[in-house]
# Entry
Amino acid sequence: MGKRIEKLESSFPHSTDLVLEELLKRYAKHGRTIPVKFRKLVPWLNGPDRFTHLLHPYPAKLLVHIPHFFLSSSLICQDGGVVLDPFCGSGTVLLESVLSGRRAIGVDSNPLARLIAEVKTTPYKSEELLNEFYKLKRGIPAEPTIETPKVVNIEYWFYKHVLKKLLCTKQAILEIKDRQIRNFFLVCFSKTVKEVSLADPKLSVPVKLRRDKYSSAHPLHVPTTARLNWLRRVNVISVFENNVMTNVKRFETLTSLEYGFPTAQITTFVKTDKYNHSCNAFSLAGVGDNSIDLVITSPPYAGAQKYIRSSSLSLGWLDLAATDELRLLESYSIGREHFRKHEILDSFNSGISELDSILMKLSNSNSLRAHILYQYFRDMDKVMKELYRVLKTGNHLVLIIGNNNVCGKPFNTSLYLQKLANQNGLFTSLKLSDGIISRSLLTKRNGTKGVIEREVILVLTKE
# Structure
């Protein structure tokens, strides 16, 4: 890292333009990836519990410092512009965009993510939330009269007394007539569902805790046993109340800003059908040509993320996707892993000869893995075309990507996505890399995928 950038890293917010200008000059001169530390580039950010970012857990959240850095610079987006995140997840980019005074547009195929993002960026009044909560608490019935939701193996994941109290709590929430207020409590309820389930809290993908999982000498034996004992006597209503109160305080910090909550609003595009969009026909329906000032997004990894599976308990409890709908919902996700035999291809034409060559070699030993990667890049090619269409000429796409292993070997996802973007008229203005502390999503193939240690941040410009 250059000495000038090192000096600027600890400067005040007004120096963001200076840092970015220096980075752009260096890349234009050498064309090489520049290592940076975004936590140092924006040292004025407070801790991880910033406003409503921690409203609800979600896998593989984007480091908030990255969108904040670019949104702090007038070189990348003028004040009052429109920011798009086509893979918005639980809304990290959207909240930072709204806080910067810009309108935010978010799209995601996971209905739980859309719900969290919407609630996270709504300026709730704490008094109104508290009044509704006390009314809700008084209305929690002793016995539920609503149907048990269609959650995968629901009795496998919840003790009977926990299941009963969750049903009673949900029944009271559904009595709330105001949709926005009801959504706030549904998000708090969703967080509670995960916390009082028998799923291992260390993993985002549900894996059941068992007393016999660890030997008595294992360091996780004591905490696992303690948690299972706690779940035997847990007071579900108290856990729910704690989540409500904690989140109400988060909104107090949000709406008590000196300048008030920004007037910018978020729009989450949802088609008239139950799900948002199919990756086989990716489109930003409702977003006009040349209408977006800035795109900041972190797309899913190729076959690495299990967003639907990690959300399955909440999706069922909130009636967003029943057990028999999860596979369909997953098919709407880019980077999905499940394909039928007749869908698997044995020839590839991505338009990137180096990528096709790697896929052909991989196909000889693992045809499914090769097809998963090929389908991912086909889908991302459609994404790049749509982003080119909606982005204003001369404006920028900030793409955050992690490179992971495929079948035990390094795979340069960021390079091939960069080539796809270039082929679609989005040219590279800057390429950075930053270390990842945690992406919080482990899978059973974590060993062969490898730990993703660095992220690549591409700044692409529509010429």
Notes: The radius of gyration is 23 Å. The longest strand covers residues 391-402.
